[in-house]
Each structure stands twice: as C-alpha cells, then as structure tokens.
Records
---
Amino acid sequence: MLDSILIANRGEIACRVLRTARRLGLRTIAVYHHADRHAPHVTLADEAVELEADAPTAAYLDSGQIVAVARERGAACVHPGYGFLAENAGFAAAVEAAGLTFVGPQPEVIRLMGDKVHAREFAVAAGVPVAPSVLQEGDLDAFVSAASAIGFPLLIKAAAGGGGKGMSIVRAAGELAARAATATAEAERYFADGRVYAERYIERPRHIEVQVLGDGHGNVVHLFERECSVQRRFQKIIEEAPAARLDPALREQICAAAVDLAARANYRNAGTVEFILAPDDAFYFLEMNTRLQVEHPVTELILGVDLVEAQLRVAAGDGLPWTQDAIRPRGHAIECRVCCEDPAADFRPATGSARILRVPELPGVRFDGGLVEGQAITAAFDSMVGKLCGYGTERDAAIERCLAALGEFVLLGVDNNLDYLGRVLDHPAFRAAELHTGFVVEHAADLVPPALDDVDRAAVLTAAALAVDDFRELAYGTPEPHAAIGGWRN
C-alpha cells in the first residue's frame, strides 16, 4: 500500500477520500484556497497546504502548483476526486512525470474517453451499440444536411463536454442550424473546443451506468449498474442501485458491454460506462467517465465495499481486489444530491451561508458532505454540497429511509433542494419506478411546493429557530424574575 496521498480536490469528495486514506494509515495532504481555510477537508488532513491564486477555482485547477506541492510534501500518490482536474489527461501525465502515482486511469485513456467523438468510435470498434450520429467539422450546411438525414428528434452535444453543457434537443429541421451554432459557442466557452455532434435522441430513455474497475492489463470487473434517470438540466439529482425493473438478461448484456469496452482500453482503476436505455430495451453507449463518480456510494452500500480503497490498491499495483463471481449485490440504495439551488427558479444556484446545519443520523442512512455550520456558499463552485443515501433490503425501504432523513435534515441560510428531493421520492411515479430522463419535466406540476400562508410560514420559522441551541437557551434558559432570588418567597 502507498504510504501517503495528496487529494487534489475540495468539499465532500476530498473528505470522502481522506477518511478512507486515514483508515488505511496513509499520511494525508490537503490543498486549499484561502477562501477554504476553515473547510472540513483542511482540518481532516494531516497536512494542508494553501494554494496561491486570486480565484478559488484557479487554485484547484493549477496543476503545476498542485504537482509541486505533492513533490515537496513527499506524497506517494495523488487522488483527483471528481471535477476540477479529475479527467484532465495533462494533469495525470504531469503527476506521473513527477514520479508520483496517479490514482486513476492512464493519461492516454483519459484523453481518449474525454473526447466524446473518439470514445464513440472506440465503442463501435469494441462492438458496443452506439446511436447514429454525425460530427460538425466546420461546414454548418453539410452538418445540418447530414444530421437531418438521421431523423428527428436529435440531441446536439459538445464533443469535449460534459455536465449538460453544450447540449440541446432539436425536434425540427428549422431549429437545427441555430441550435448547432449555440451549442458550438457554448462548447467553445466551457471546453475551449467548439466541436459538436448530433445523435439520434431517444424519447423517454432511462440513463443506466455501469461501475467498472480495471487493473490496466486488460482485466476488468463490473460492480453492477446504477440508475441515474432523474435529472434536471441534463444533470443527475437522484441515483439508485440496482436499477429497478431491469430484466436480468438485459442487465447482463449492459454490464458485459461495459466490461468489453474497458478491457479493450486496458482500463486502469475505477470508471463508469454510461448508456441510454430506450423503451424497447435497446441500449446505446453514451460516454465513459474516467474517474470515481459522484454516485459511487450507492454501489458501495449494496456491495459492502469501499471503492476508494479499491482505487488505492489498484494504484499501488496490488491488482483487482475481487473476482467477478465474488461480487454479489444485496438490498437497494438511493442517493439524493443535496444542492444549494432554487428548484422553483429552474434550479438556479443559490448563495449564502450555512447558518444552521443539522445532518440526520438514522439507521440505514449515510451522508457524504463537506459543509460545516457558518460556511459560505459561493458561486465559485458547483451547487452540490453533499449526498444523502438511504439503504434498505428492498427499494421501498430505501425510499422511506431517504424520506425520513430528508425530513430531519436542516440547512438554513441558503436556498436548497431538500424539500424538492422529498417530493420526488414520494411521487407515485417514482415509487413505481416509472423513470426516464424527462421525469422532472413531465411531473413538474406535481413537484411544486405547497403554498404557505402567513400563519404556516411563521410556524415553520419558529420551529426552525427552536432547533437552534443558542435560541432555546435565550428563550427558555433565563430564569423568571422571582426565580432569580432563590428559595425565599413573600
């Protein structure tokens, strides 16, 4: 096992990696921007080094400075978490060039899978189903003509993108040129790569992904699938494992396709192969994420494994920790992404501070977070501040545990989606596992919060205030005037 690790990230994923690394006895090193000097990942680590940069995001994206810190502090390996530099092939190469171990796949594989067009070509060569598509290569008229030949609706996507950026659904030929131009501009702005492509859009699809782990020598195991169909603006908010109402034979085909793709790439470490599943059970390769996924806890809960430990052992050269036959799922797990955003305003990110934070501690509930009371929530980072998971022997039990935890979760001082997540989980269509990527839009009217009158609003605010120890002390801890004089009366 490696003896020391630098975590090139922040927030809940940095805390998640730190806890496993500390349990394994590794010396841990955190990096941070001045704005994060009091953040949990800074206090959790054995050492913490401030990165020099004016803006927080610039600090966490400064690969040269991070590699220099890793070398100076004697780190044996670097874990990138997810986001920031996690899927940056140049960063992975710089880590390895410095004589350190990168806890992730090979730089060339990151580069291959990071380009959606090349990844699709690779999938076709591996015999993995891919939806019909066409790439825009400069001539807009030719692109419009070729894309129209595929048939509508179409999905426009950024070739170097992710996270829903540069994506658009086109339902008619008259919209195609304008949507392609907009997607090109957005792709250039977010990824410095204006290439876009159009692929056949599957109506009411499910989003199914497979967790894989490879040793870099062609040996790959899958850790079954996750359902990620409940999304807003092409970004996941609720994930679960295993996928409900998935035929066992179809599950086996999807997982086998993921393993074939990863094995052909000689994939090393943890990754996720994502698929679109059509209503007729045809499935198509979507992309491969060359990192640990946000939703990895649901896989850990149903398998009883620690994927970060597995990552570290593979990185250390120990090989795969499991054979395929030894991996057996049990029960059901659901993850809710806790985000500081306003669902009523098209999920607009919110800013403020966590004035009051109460995280529930209930049986069968897990919370991965990187937030403390008083911490500022700014526009500098993603709106997600934590992940609430519920586990049960059956899907209904997992739902109920999530609902109970969401009901006890308190986050005041900034708009958040806690109540919204509860309404999604309690919706009859969700309980019946009638899921597709348009779920949030289709049921938007049902997911609107109930109106509060002035009396109800006052009651809610009073209850929230009474949950604060300092307020209760001020309200009830001061003795009445006659009690202050002791036992004497008259």
---
Amino acid sequence: MNKICVVGAGRVGESTAQFIASRDLCRELTLVDINEGAASGAALDIQEDGPLFKFDTQLKGGSDPELMANADLVIVTAGIPRKPGMSRSDVMEVNIKVTDEIVANTLKYAPNAMMLFVSNPVDILTYRAWKKTGWDRNRIFGQAGVLDSTRMASFIAMETGYSALDIDAMVLGGHGDSMVPMMRYTTISGIPVSNFMEQKAIDDIITRTRNGGAEILALRQNSSAFDAPAAAVAVMVDAIVNDRKRILPSVAILDNEFGCKDIAIGVPTVLGKNGMERIIELELNEQEQQDFDNSVAQVKKDLGILATL
C-alpha cells in the first residue's frame, strides 16, 4: 500500500502508527490530529526508530487535513476516550461530530480510500460513515472483533497454561457489554475449548471478555487500552495490504446476513485488498442466536439515539 493516514494521534493512534510502520505496511504514513505538535512529534518519534525496526516507511504529522491527500486507507482513532464508569455509548455524541468532520475531509482529500474505524462506539461510527459517504460497504469497516477475540484467547491461555499461539477465538456482535463470545467456535490447536475447561471457567472468561476494556480502564484510571487495540488494527491492515483473505471478526455493514440489514455489527469477514470482501455466516444455536439478537438490539438502540443527533 502506498499511503495510510491515521487520524488521531493519541495513544491508540500513535501505537497504531508504530505497529504499521514497524511492519513496513506502507510507503508513507501520516498522522493527523487537532493537536499539531502531538501528531508531528509522534511521527518524528516513530521515524527515528526506523533503523532499529528496519523499516523505510516515511512518516509525517500535523493538523492540516490535507495530509490525508491520496491516502489508500484512513484509520480513525480520533475522539474522546472513555473514563472509568463510562460505557462506549456515553462518548457517542462528541465522537459523532468528530467522525462527521473526518468523513468530510476524507471525501475531499482521499475520495478513493477505504476507512477503518477504531473510535467508540465503533459500530455506530462505522454505520454513520457509511451513510455519510454513500460508499460500497466493502470500503468502510471497523475494528472490534479482532481485539475482543484476542482478549478472550489471552484469557484462555492464562487459564489453561497452553500457548496463546495455538488458541483461535471468535467474538461476534456489538463492541460492548452485549458482545457474543463464541465458545463453540473457539479452539486450542483445533480442539474445542470445552475439552480443556469446566463450564464455570468458560463462563468466567466470557464475562471477563465482555468487560475487557473496562478492566484495563479501571486499572489505568487515566487511559483506556491502546496497545492491544493498535495491534489488532495492524493485523487487519496487514490482511488488506498483503491481500491475505484472512477471516477476521470485523464491524461490517450487514445486508441480510445473519438475518439483519442496515446495521453495522461485528461478524466474521474476509479481509483482502478490496477491504471487507465478504461476510462469513455462521450457523448459530438457540442460545447464540438469542445473544446475537440481544447485541443487535443494543446497537439498534444506539442507532436510534444517533437519529436524534
């Protein structure tokens, strides 16, 4: 990929830029933030570790949205973060306004780009951008399921003592308390996780996964998570840049998949050079369907609030 632009040079944005640059996923990477010094400082700081991480990506930063010009991919991390006790929906009104401005700038400076949303509430912001741009749904998607799934895989590794390298986890639904950890589709070296843990331990991991972001926020107090979210974004970018056709849970616009339409929510997707190239539909049992329907209802509730803004 020639050029990637990260909008938002806070902790998530800076870490995202670091991961992307260190993996040499593009020739040019720009950071845009309302705080010009934060963006330009982060860009220079990352540029200076190029000789150590062996990358040639050229970084620039600043507050001028023209830095987005001709980007192939715009990654949105800008907006206000959660504070302890806040839900992801609590930051929606402010972050909608931020997103609308970013979308307008993308249409002006990078009309052929794809957009990857990270800011919360990610399901709602992804949907809003899709509506604002009128683009095909493959060009606009969000990061949530990769992060939620890797959190669950980490918890399973911690509980069982087995290598995290052998654990494949899957989380669907909205990026919030109603997310749906799919234990039937979660394995250790291809073996269902239920072979290794009692139901009580599985239930505890499901609860911890749903509260994964809040747990880190409560511990840090002054910051939500940023390293794992940034790493999750880098995995998605790698799949797109290298046309890997990876199946990764992403926030996607549904068009009758899973019985839903006109909504953005986390589902298994195929990521390749064209962005979100396909949605993989899973056969859900009665409990999974109930949990997914509950998650859809929560996202629709937030979309109802969105309509009033």
